[in-house]
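During data preparation, a discrete fold description was generated, and the record follows.
___
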Amino acid sequence: MKSTMRFPNSVPAQSRHLAPRQHIGTPVSSRISAIRGQRWISGTALAAAVLSCSAALAEPAPARYQVAFERTWSSKTHPKDFPLLAHFSPVIGVTHNADYSPFKAGGTASPGVEHLCEEGKHQPLDDEIRSAIAAGAAGVLIETPDPIRDVPGKAVANFEINPSHPMVSIGAMIAPSPDWCGFAADVMLMENGQWVGKKSVTLYAWDTGTDSGTSYRAFDSDAEPRGTVQPSDAAYFLKKDGKRNPVGQVTFVRQ
């Protein structure tokens, strides 16, 4: 008798044929696409981070400056009818961008500039500046408390400036006068993307166009029609050759 050998747990012959392999989970092609997508997202995020860092490095941080507002206007430099009790009012200024310029040449003086240059008052110009700050067009208000009575004399203030408001405008009343101020307007303290170490600006007399008086002690007489902010053409502030005679200097020094 022919014996038959049995193998425990053997699989019947008809069952040994392998069933078609089933794909479990995500197909390989989809997984490759997902990996590529993740790499693209990672690369994009990295590029954005690099650009952000580059921008942060390119834009300078806020800086601190000291400004000295100096008076040279005197009976020696401007002898014609030089007035008694001559002085500069307390100084007021602001850091700002191109959307705001309180002493803009050719512009119409605001009520604040009118009161500053006719009466030496900071109000309401200080409120106008605060409104510009709230609107994002200005950065900080700059003020000094006392008139400049001595010659030579100066008022000093410290302030912070940022890249969003890289310009400074600053001025004071020339007193007594109808509506004359000495100011430096739209002084740019950032050059080639960097804060300057020091910058000086010659200070001249300006007529704000709000009063028609032509002498130091002229009676109050509102200008009709109202004029614009222009360099003063009063003989007091002109040299013999007709050129403008400075009344002072403004110097900005980075701290």
The helical segments are 28-58, 111-119, 125-134.
